[in-house]
Design goal:
267 residues, alpha/beta, 5-stranded mixed β-sheet, ATP binding, potassium, ATP-binding, ATPase_NBD
Length: 267
């Protein structure tokens, strides 16, 4: 049964990603708070299921939250979009939960294994900024997902994201170090003279070139098509695009909350 929102029309949106949980607190159509946490163990989720009020819930999942009188009288529903089945299963104990599925997203032409995160982000971006729309998600994986003016899926692509490429090189080779994305503040030299910068150069320049190629192919199909970028590495990749291809970067919509906009549109 679909959970009913409380009379105050307050509800929680939860995106269960490959690496983290992404949360949003809505008051009606308005996103009031958004934050991230690590994946929660089953014991903590069971603790959340025993909460009686939103205040109690936020004290557990929103570390800098301070108890107020505003959310003291009810427990809100949680609407979940998940790409991690093992995590999804843990939330069945929560009393007011709905797992959002592909058949709730009004995009046309979707295939059965399309990720719910990709579908919701594309739907949210298109409803806010218009179609045709290409969404680039720079998360654990780097994905491209697009729809035409008729809100019909055009298609997309999936490849390892920036951090995953660095991690794989460090873990699957004998001598290469793991490069942390947080240490990258500017473009590395293209022809590097040390191993860490050589890894940065190889991954970053080919990744940016790939993004540029997909964007140009998108504009070949839809010259007026819009492009939005989200995900944990969005700012880093956008800054590099801005440095290398400012004529492309100026057209990008940088917005982390695309999935939440998609959830808002279907709730």
């Amino acid at each position: 049964m679909k959970p009913q929102r409380h009379i105050e029309n307050i509800w929680l949106a939860l995106e269960i990603g490959n690496s983290r949980l992404h949360w949003a607190l809505f008051k009606g159509e308005t996103l009031d708070l958004a934050w991230d946490t690590e994946h929660l163990p089953e014991s903590v989720i069971q603790q959340l299921a025993q909460c009686q009020t939103l205040d109690d819930l936020l004290l557990i999942i929103f570390p800098i939250y301070h108890k107020t009188a505003a959310f003291s009288s009810f427990l809100p529903p949680i609407f979940i979009a998940s790409v991690v089945p093992s995590q999804t299963a843990l939330w069945q104990s929560y009393p007011h939960v709905e797992i959002i599925t592909l058949n709730q997203v009004p995009l046309l032409g979707m295939y059965p294994t399309l990720g719910i995160d990709r579908a919701l982000a594309l739907w949210g971006a298109g409803k806010v900024w218009g179609f045709p729309m290409l969404v680039i998600d720079a998360g654990t994986t780097l994905t491209f997902t697009s729809a035409d003016i008729n809100q019909c899926l055009v298609g997309g692509a999936i490849l390892p994201g920036l951090s995953l490429q660095f991690l794989t090189l460090g873990q699957k080779t004998g001598q290469l170090p793991i490069v942390e994305t947080k240490i990258i503040t500017s473009l590395p030299p293209r022809f590097a003279l040390n191993t860490p910068e050589a890894i940065q150069s190889g991954v970053i320049y080919t990744l940016i070139a790939g993004i540029k190629d997909f964007i140009e192919a998108w504009w070949d199909l839809f010259p007026q098509g819009k492009i939005a970028i989200k995900g944990g590495d969005r700012t880093l990749l956008f800054n590099h695009l801005q440095a290398l291809y400012p004529e492309i970067a100026v057209h990008l919509i940088v917005e982390q909350n695309l999935i939440f906009w998609g959830m808002r549109e279907i709730n």
